[in-house]
Amino acid sequence: MASSGIEARRKAALEVGSAAYLDRRAELIKAAANVFRERGHETTLRDVADALGTERASLYYYIGSREELLQAIVSEALDRDLAAARTIKRSKKSTPEKIRALISSMVLGYAEYYPHMNVYIEQIGRIARQESAWATEVIEETRKYEELVLGILRQGQKEGSLRDDLPVNVVSMALFGTINWMYRWYRPSYPETPEEIARTMAEIFLGGFAVKP
Amino acid sequence: MASSGIEARRKAALEVGSAAYLDRRAELIKAAANVFRERGHETTLRDVADALGTERASLYYYIGSREELLQAIVSEALDRDLAAARTIKRSKKSTPEKIRALISSMVLGYAEYYPHMNVYIEQIGRIARQESAWATEVIEETRKYEELVLGILRQGQKEGSLRDDLPVNVVSMALFGTINWMYRWYRPSYPETPEEIARTMAEIFLGGFAVKP
DNA sequence: AGATCTTTCAACACAGGAGTTGACAACAAA
DNA sequence: TTTGTTGTCAACTCCTGTGTTGAAAGATCT
């Protein structure tokens, strides 16, 4: 076999899937997530290589393209998020409790999956403009997620545990905004713990910030 | 004078400031704002020129660089936003009423300054990574804005009109998130009016979404 | 009409980033 | 020791986007 043809060699290595190879690959993705989080979409593969202390060309032994790298990061974040939400939907809690659990799950997931989640939120707008099969699927999944939350809110209105004098589509956007905006300010070093952040958001969303008369 | 040296000629035209020139320049910025809103940071000057039905090189008669164009868009949005907030702070309303007014002002400003605001929010993260004098100032202004809101919230806690069992820094981020997230979903064609959106957000933030016992 | 200013544009130079090639060192296996 | 495999890298090619040049049409004034 030729010594080069890096693409073929990458695919072969991925096929075989030795632990060492996969570990290194995962390490690369994680490092890349951090760099992307820091530098945003202007990040170059040179930045990523530098962060890993390696050469730009070496990256191609593990990933096919810059875009593929971004996809790996985003997919990890999305999968995790969706799985958590589905579990909650199926649970037997009351609607307000479901919302509380949902907020908790999203905020904690955010903190745990910190750089990935950040990149996901920051990239999703750009992804929506693409038309690759992958992009279409990510958008579809995101839409499903929103639909799921909307379903919970409607259910609450129907059964009378949530106010029905407010348009549910706007309310759901307000909820997503509260949480997703974290990508702008949350850092692992933030003074409040993720638990405290989740509690605060749930309290406001469900009970409001004004003192009750 | 040489027929070229477009930079000098641009500066001269800007200096003289004929209405026709400034109008055309403003038109360019507005069109650019729309394109940037649509295509995000990947927008090329070619896209902008196409939207205007002109040639890429012609743009340089009105703006010095792509970055300068972006700055013009962002500055317009920021100036307007800050002015509105200051007026409210000085007003004589009660704290909860101030918050209601603030939310209203932000949401309505958002709708009115639609593409500019969108670009501002989308670019601010990138701007924060730059170190030009201009970038530093924008970040500083943004910080002041946040400080202003924080001040209102603290005042409310002190006087007892707002709950003081929640960390005010997280609360303020939740509030900003609710509103700023609009850049992801608000379009002029959105079914609910800006007034209705503002009312909904204020109701939730102040009173909560759960039905009172 | 002739001179002059305003606005546009085709063509170019330049820079930087993505992805590829072909080899090479290190280590393992035979 | 020879052979093969794994991971790395210097040196390309190719492409795309920015900003500049020099000139040429249109508009305006005299």
Helices and strands in order:
The structure is a homodimer of 213-residue chains.
Chain A: H1 6-16, H2 19-39, H3 45-52, H4 56-59, H5 66-90, H6 95-112, H7 114-128, H8 133-159, H9 168-180, H10 182-185, H11 194-207
The structure holds a DNA duplex (30 and 30 nucleotides).
What are the defining features of this structure?
DNA-binding, about 75% helix, mainly alpha, 2 domains, homodimer, about 210 residues, Arc Repressor Mutant, subunit A
Q: Care to describe what's here?
A:
2 copies of one chain form a homodimer. The termini of chain A are far apart. In chain A, 75% of the residues lie in helices and 0% in strands. Chain A is elongated, with a radius of gyration of 20 Å. Chain A has 2 domains: 2-64, Arc Repressor Mutant, subunit A (Orthogonal Bundle), CATH 1.10.10.60; 71-209, Tetracycline Repressor, domain 2 (Orthogonal Bundle), CATH 1.10.357. In chain A, α2 crosses α7 and α6 (95-112) packs antiparallel against α8 (133-159). Chain A has 11 helices and no strands. By secondary structure, chain A is mainly alpha-helical. The first copy, chain A, binds a DNA duplex (30 and 30 nucleotides) through residues 1-7, 9, 13, 18, 20-21, 24, 44-46, 54-58, 60-61, 64-66.
Please give a quick description of this structure.
The structure is a homodimer of 213-residue chains. Chain A has eleven helices and no strands.
